[in-house]
């Protein structure tokens, strides 16, 4: 007999246990269901455990069936007790609790194959054992099961807002639904309720009486709306609702839908009810940063309209408000001092109150960060689970199975109810929970009946539709991509050779080939990815292939929308995230603030993962938050010393803060230890050369180039992005004597970067290399390619840059200055880092000095020195200022700017 635990015996747990028993019995399978909860009753839980008959359901009886395939089940049960019950009645919540208790008992008695075991204890920890799990109980016992479903209800966080003094005073009611909670201090004088949602409405109704005032405050002060006495049918959601277009567009289209419903039906409620079937899909389509914004800016307004009061409850509240026995407002608790038999509280609006108790009515929290639930803490600490998207609940697959942290084993653990808020947003009402209970029960039983090993997954839990051998090769390749190590393409080629139908493997090869800037395997790999995805792939894999396809073959906007939409639905797809953010590995589809928001919004999905910490460190250095960037990169490097993004971030911190000698020493040490296997080794060498350039150390710069950046040491696009770019910068700063050895670089570099680059990043560096070679004809051809390109960055940045560089080659300095100035704020659109963008500023400085515009050159140099100390810029600024005081005009000799005093 298989053993399945259901942890939690409230509504979600009861419905799940019932579904497990019913479905197992229908299939003729022997299953033991262990329903574990410390409570004395099965079914009511917190939501339906109240004994106060004034506490009503906020959903009509006709919509409260326990079974999605039998919508009248509760109504039939109700009419057996009350023949006058109607579908539109809002019955007492305790009655629904009795229904759930009766349902569990009747199902257990009727089943012949399934057996129910009720354990009145609390699960405080879990560990894996074989394919199953061992649940540790607070009473020191253990339950070994083949699978478990967690029905934990709201994941209550530590209530730090109340302050230690208040929490320990005996006058703080942390849980108003605990038995007898409202009979103590809250039953004496005036009280303060913190929160103004549905919990407050019920508690206020219980506590209100003529000789006391019930105060209620929340951050917004908004009260729940009420249901219409006679509900209208939902208005179907319009097809143009699309979360992938962003929060602003979604807000606008939802408002239009509600306005249209109001005009057609006379009320907005049918329009909002019509959103219920599509809410989860819209939430999953939203980019993660927009989900965070929604929680901060829109959630409370959404909740007071979405979760409404029964008409009778609303009437009671209106009477209490009119009489002054209940007073509500917007504010936050900022201070609470116990004084004798009362508490003196201070609110954020300046109000001071003396109350007998403070009652927590904040409702369903986000969880789980800071959660007080020991089982959830165990899941997160052991990696068996991870925080859900946008920091809400626990992260789950589409079937409700818990997703583990990177590198942790995946146990047979599912969850239902409030813990899935991060993935679904709306997941606490019976219509959603009953559907989840039925689905999860079916998935659990199917998994237990399946003798095949679980499908392989990558290090972040993303399922891979391929063989275990190909999956292992792919995962090794993914690690190398994320770490910036060599050999990823070779491993991917092996993976698709092992399994030619491996869609994600082909798509990853296509993506890398495109990013390398040459035709290479990309077109053929993309075609094979499309074919494979049509035959064997899940929704996540098909979405990834479609996003790669859009990025490689579509317009810039189409590719960006597809990739960000995929990440919104699958935030743990680290390869997709890497492709979206400009790094040493990828050009990216986002820039500046948009890239920052994307990375910051993924913190809940990745936690302390070393790759993510490196990504976040790079964001922090771009935001000039140097200390944070340094700390994050050090944490990442402690976990993975070769972590490419962390190395890159720390490198930028050294450079941007002017710590040239310390940065150079650290980089040389890292290159010695880890440089041989780094695919971005030449880029790190380029950074070391920038320090030498800034230190005005010409001999060291020349040695660095010949030792680490010459054509014999570098390959692929790095020949242009690192080696040729350094040569051009050295010429522009007067740091190179003689001819530039650029011909050998152009001969070995990818010709597509020079003639028909696929990305703005490749085009930028191709143009610089052609300028270094003095090839005006090739610059003209690149300009023509840029002018005809469909991506906006080519026409707006690359084409005018080609004109400006041509002017520099012709030594038409005034024309060069005229064309270069407007480009300074636009170069970031190519995906180049700030340090890479500086090459255009260096070119402008060279042109200003050569054209005799010393005032403008001095201002630009002074601004650079304010930003970052540099012996090179100090020498140049002194020379320009001396020229203004009577020195002879600097001459450009052999590409070197020379300064000599007039006679």
From TrEMBL:
InterPro entries: FAD/NAD-bd_sf (IPR036188), HpyO/CreE_NAD-binding (IPR038732), L-asp_N-monooxygenase_NS-form (IPR052189), TPR-like_helical_dom_sf (IPR011990). This is FAD/NAD(P)-binding protein. It holds the Pfam family NAD_binding_9. Residues 5-154 form the FAD-dependent urate hydroxylase HpyO/Asp monooxygenase CreE-like FAD/NAD(P)-binding domain. It comes from the Bacteria.
């Amino acid at each position: 007999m298989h053993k399945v635990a259901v942890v939690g015996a409230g509504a979600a747990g009861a419905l799940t246990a019932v579904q497990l028993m019913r479905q197992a019995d229908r299939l003729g399978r022997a299953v033991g269901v262990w329903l574990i909860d410390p409570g004395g009753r099965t079914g009511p839980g917190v939501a339906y455990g109240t004994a106060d008959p004034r506490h009503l359901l906020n959903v009509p009886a006709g919509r409260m069936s326990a079974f999605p395939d039998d919508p009248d089940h509760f109504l039939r049960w109700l009419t057996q007790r009350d023949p006058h019950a109607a579908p539109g009645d809002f019955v007492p919540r305790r009655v629904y609790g009795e229904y759930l208790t009766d349902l569990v008992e009747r199902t257990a008695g009727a089943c012949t194959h399934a057996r129910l075991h009720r354990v009145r204890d609390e699960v405080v920890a879990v560990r894996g054992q074989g394919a199953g799990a061992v649940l540790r109980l607070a009473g020191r016992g253990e339950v070994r099961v083949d699978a478990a479903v967690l029905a934990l209800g709201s994941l209550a966080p530590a209530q730090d807002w109340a302050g230690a003094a208040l929490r320990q005073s005996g006058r703080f009611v942390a849980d108003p639904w605990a038995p007898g909670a409202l009979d103590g201090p809250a039953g004496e004088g005036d009280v303060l309720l913190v929160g103004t949602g549905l919990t407050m409405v019920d508690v206020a109704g219980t506590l209100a009486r003529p000789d006391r005032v019930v105060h209620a405050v929340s951050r917004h002060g908004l009260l729940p709306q009420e249901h219409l006495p006679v509900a209208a049918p939902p208005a179907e959601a319009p097809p143009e609702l699309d979360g992938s277009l962003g929060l602003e567009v979604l807000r606008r289209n939802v408002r239009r839908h509600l306005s249209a419903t109001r005009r057609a039906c006379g009320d907005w409620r049918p329009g909002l009810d019509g959103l219920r079937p599509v809410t989860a899909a819209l939430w999953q389509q939203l980019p993660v940063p927009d989900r965070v914004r929604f929680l901060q800016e829109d959630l409370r307004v959404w909740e007071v309209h979405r979760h409404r009061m029964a008409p009778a409850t609303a009437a009671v509240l209106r009477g209490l408000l009119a009489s002054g026995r209940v007073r509500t407002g917007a504010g936050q608790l900022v201070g609470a001092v116990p004084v004798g038999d009362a508490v003196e509280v201070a609110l954020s609006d300046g109000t001071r109150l003396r109350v007998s108790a403070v009652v927590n009515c904040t409702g369903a929290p986000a969880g789980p960060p800071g959660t007080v639930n020991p089982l959830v803490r165990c899941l997160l600490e052991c990696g068996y689970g991870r925080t859900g998207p946008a920091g809400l609940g626990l992260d789950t697959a589409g079937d409700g199975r818990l997703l583990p942290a990177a590198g942790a084993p995946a146990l047979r653990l599912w969850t239902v109810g409030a813990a899935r808020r991060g993935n679904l947003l709306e997941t606490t009402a019976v219509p959603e929970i009953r559907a989840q209970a039925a689905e999860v029960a079916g998935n659990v039983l199917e998994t237990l009946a399946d003798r095949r090993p679980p499908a392989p997954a990558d290090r972040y839990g993303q399922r891979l539709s391929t063989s275990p051998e190909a999956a292992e090769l792919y995962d090794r390749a993914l690690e190398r991509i994320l770490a910036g190590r060599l050999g990823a393409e070779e491993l991917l080629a092996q993976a698709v050779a092992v399994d030619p139908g491996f869609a994600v493997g082909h798509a990853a090869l296509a993506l890398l080939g495109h990013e390398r800037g040459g035709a290479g395997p990309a077109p053929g790999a993309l075609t094979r990815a499309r074919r494979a995805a049509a035959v064997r792939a899940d929704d996540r894999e098909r979405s990834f292939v479609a996003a790669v396809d859009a990025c490689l073959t579509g317009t810039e906007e189409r590719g960006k929308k597809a990739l960000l939409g995929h990440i919104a639905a699958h935030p743990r797809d680290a390869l997709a995230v890497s492709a979206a953010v400009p790094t040493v590995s990828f050009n990216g589809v986002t820039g500046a603030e948009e890239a920052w928001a994307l990375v910051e919004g993924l913190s809940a999905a990745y936690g302390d993962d070393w790759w993510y910490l490196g990504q976040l460190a790079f964001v922090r250095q771009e935001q000039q938050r140097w200390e944070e960037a340094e700390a994050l990169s050090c944490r990442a490097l402690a976990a993975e010393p070769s972590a490419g993004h962390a190395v890159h971030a720390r490198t930028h911190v050294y450079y941007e803060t002017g710590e040239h000698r310390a940065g150079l020493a650290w980089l040389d040490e890292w290159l010695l230890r880890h440089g041989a296997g780094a695919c971005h080794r030449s880029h790190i060498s380029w950074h070391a050369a920038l320090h030498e350039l800034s230190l005005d150390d010409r001999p060291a710069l020349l040695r660095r180039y010949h030792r680490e950046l010459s054509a014999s040491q570098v390959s692929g696009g790095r020949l242009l992005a690192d080696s040729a770019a350094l040569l051009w910068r050295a010429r522009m700063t007067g740091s190179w004597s003689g001819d530039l050895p650029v011909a050998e670089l152009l001969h070995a570099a990818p010709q597509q970067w020079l003639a028909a680059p696929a990305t703005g990043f490749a085009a930028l560096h191709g143009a610089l290399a052609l300028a270094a070679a003095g090839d005006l004809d090739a610059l003209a051809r690149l300009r023509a390619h840029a002018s005809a390109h469909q991506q906006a960055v080519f026409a707006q940045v690359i084409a005018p840059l080609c004109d400006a560089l041509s002017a520099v080659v012709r030594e038409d300095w005034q024309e060069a200055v005229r064309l270069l100035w407007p480009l300074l704020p636009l170069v970031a659109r190519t995906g180049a880092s700030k340090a890479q963008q500086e090459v255009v500023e260096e070119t402008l400085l060279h042109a200003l000095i050569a054209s005799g515009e010393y005032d403008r050159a001095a201002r630009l140099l002074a601004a650079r020195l304010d930003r970052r100390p540099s012996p090179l810029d100090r020498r140049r600024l002194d020379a320009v200022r001396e020229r203004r005081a009577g020195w002879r005009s600097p001459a450009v000799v052999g590409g070197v700017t020379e300064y000599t005093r007039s006679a």
